[in-house]
Amino acid sequence: MRLKVVAALGMVALLSACAHEKANTGASTGASMPAGPVPGSEADLVANVGDRVFFDFNKSGLKDDAKVTLQKQADWMAKYQQVNVEVAGNCDDRGTEEYNIALGQRRANAARDFLVSKGVTSARISTISYGKDRPTALGDNEEAWAQNRNAITSVK
Prior knowledge:
Layout: H1 2-19, H2 42-48, E1 52-54, H3 64-79, E2 85-90, H4 97-117, E3 125-131, H5 142-148, E4 150-155
């Protein structure tokens, strides 16, 4: 019985000591964790600039809102000269595979050409078309189709 009491008191003392240990916040060294994504990263592009532009049905021409996003991407790339990107053209699931691959490539090229026209070196941008093979939204309705008609810029 006496051994059980001593063991119980020992456990209470141990738990009490752990509960009062000061947490290491990095404040003693002056270091702190960044408050957001790492500058120049994929997460930074997505959070602070926008990584995708959208297209109308069967079109590869840039809309005004797409140009605004792409201008932000060009400015971001000017700031982070070491970053290379890939622009992937995508389509909704209507149409043949061949047609959608070609349309996706035209969409990726349109985004790339805009970035180049704003001063981004073409060697920093690669393009690819996924056609209808990589939908970002599932469904067979206009809302899903509209989300899948895009060009997505990602950091390589």
